[in-house]
Automatic annotation (TrEMBL):
Its cofactor is Zn(2+). Transmembrane segments: none annotated. This is M48 family metalloprotease. One of its GO terms (cellular component) is membrane. It comes from Marivibrio halodurans. It holds the Pfam family Peptidase_M48. It is an enzyme of class 3 (hydrolase).
Length: 492
């Protein structure tokens, strides 16, 4: 969260332009299928991608500022896109500054990989596999298919609904991430794999590397689950496996179908890849605030707060959003400036809530900071929602806000936990702030006598350092190190 702007994100009416108003049923050039792509034409795909691109980048931490790495990813992406069926898409490849392992695409050829994904890929071919899979979604026009389906129509309606009403409730759940992070169907994933294998192998890359990356991802999720005290078979909500549910077996099946189509596809390029990612930022970028378990700390803005157990946090430049497991409860945190003389209760009712009259409006004291809270039950097309607003003056004209949204039947059950989140908001000392430093990924040659324990000792995963080092370097199953081999390690 950089808090540079107060403006909220809005998902528009899904960028549907003039073309194809009767609904488009056509044969997809990539899949050969007849698909109902709703009201979206090729031009609409591009318009939607263009419109959502800056918002999505912002939401995932902005672009990762590393010109060398960015041009490398562009070069690989363009190489794969040469083999795509829809050449009229203006393909664009972007690295987002997010530590989560993720990749996604917007319609029209906009493809994203996260910094976290680059850290955990082992070679160029694995990265090619990920990018090609995303180009596959773009060419199969899966988002258009989804927009054309009733399911998404309802989903968009729901997002649209919550965004109506007073400004105090605007945009809950309407984040671009919310839309993009919806997973595709199994069929769509299989299709994206098949197409991805086609593109990467025609570009000369070993298609086996699509499934090796998936194995790494599974290992990563298992260690993450252990770190979070969960069953290792459970999967992180916001990683690649959640947005692209796939299995090694399914990727293998897609590969088997493609056998013989590009017999000379053998490029792996491990060392070239490692040379590119050497020195990149690893984990959270402290200038955007750091998520550690259930706590969000912003060293530059000097505060922290904690969300309830079971909630997943997503940090973006404009806000921090947290959801419970079934995403029925949301917390949106952001910052605004309010003139120093203005009382928080007055601000909450007059400025933030607009026309909605708040119930139980009261001043509160949050760890020595003046604040106010109040709530309202709001009607939307999809039913009612209880929205509680909290505004806290951190100092000067800087005010931070929580917006808690529950369904009326859940409000009582969650009220105490959400109240604790309000009162967890606290200033942090300069010392605490300065202690938060970024980690970097380094590529080093193994010397004789080096051990996994020694090479992983500066990693940020505590007692899981060795396990994470093994995941990072394809050394699970107790595979040994050997002198001269290049490995990735993480240092402060
Ligand atoms: Zn996918």
């Amino acid at each position: 969260m950089a808090l540079t702007r107060r403006h909220f994100l809005q998902v528009g009416a899904c960028g549907v332009g003039a073309g194809c108003l009767g609904g488009c049923v056509g044969t997809n050039r990539a899949t050969g299928d007849t698909s109902f792509t709703g009201l979206m034409s090729i031009e609409d795909d591009i318009a939607m991608g263009r419109e959502q691109h800056p918002k999505l980048v912002k939401e995932f931490g902005g672009e990762y500022e590393n010109a060398k790495l960015q041009s490398y990813v562009e070069r690989l992406g363009n190489k794969a896109a040469e083999y795509a069926e829809y050449q009229e898409f203006p393909y664009k490849f972007t690295i987002v500054n997010s530590p989560i392992i993720n990749a996604f695409a917007l319609p029209g050829g906009f493809v994203y990989v996260s910094r976290g994904l680059l850290s955990y890929a082992s070679n160029e071919a694995e990265l090619m596999g990920v990018i090609s899979h995303e180009i596959g979604h773009v060419n199969a026009r899966h988002t258009a298919e989804r927009v054309g389906s009733t399911q998404l129509a309802q989903g968009l309606l729901l997002l649209g609904t919550v965004a109506t009403g007073s400004s105090a409730v605007a945009d809950v759940g309407s984040s671009v991430a919310g839309l993009v992070l919806q997973s595709f169907s199994r069929e769509q994933e299989f299709e994206a794999d098949s197409l991805g294998i086609r593109y990467m192998s025609r570009a000369g890359y070993d298609p086996d590397m699509m499934s090796t990356f998936l194995s790494t991802l599974r290992e990563y999720s298992q260690v993450q689950a252990k770190i979070n005290g969960k069953d290792p078979s459970s999967v992180d909500e916001t990683n690649l496996m959640a947005t692209h549910p796939r299995t090694v077996e399914r990727v293998q099946r897609a590969k088997d179908q493609a056998v013989g189509t590009a017999p000379n596809a053998t490029l792996v390029n491990r060392e070239q890849f490692l040379g590119q990612i050497d020195g990149m930022l690893y984990g959270d970028d402290p200038s955007q605030g750091v998520i550690d378990g259930q706590t969000f700390t912003h060293p530059d803005l000097r505060f922290r707060f904690t969300v309830p157990e079971g909630f997943t946090m997503l940090n973006s430049p404009e806000q921090v959003v947290a959801f419970n497991e079934d995403r029925t409860v949301s917390i949106v945190f952001d910052g605004v400036t309010v003139p120093e003389g203005r009382n928080m209760a007055t601000y909450l009712q007059r400025d933030w809530s607009g026309d909605v009259t708040l119930r139980d409006l009261e001043p509160i004291d949050v760890n020595g900071m003046p604040g106010a809270t109040g709530w309202a039950r709001l009607n939307g097309q999809q039913g009612q929602a209880d929205v509680r607003g909290v505004a806290i003056r951190h100092g000067g004209d800087q005010v931070y806000r929580f917006r808690f949204v529950t369904q009326p039947q859940q409000t009582d059950a969650f009220s105490e936990r959400l109240r604790q989140t309000t009162y967890s908001f606290a200033r942090i000392s300069a010392e605490t702030a300065n202690a938060i430093k970024p980690h970097r990924l380094l590529v080093v040659p193994v010397q004789s006598g080096d051990t996994v324990a020694g090479l992983s000792k500066h990693m940020p995963h505590g007692r899981y350092n060795e396990e994470m080092f093994r995941v990072l370097n394809d050394l699970v199953d107790g595979r040994p190190l050997h002198a001269g081999q290049y490995v990735k390690t993480i240092v402060l």
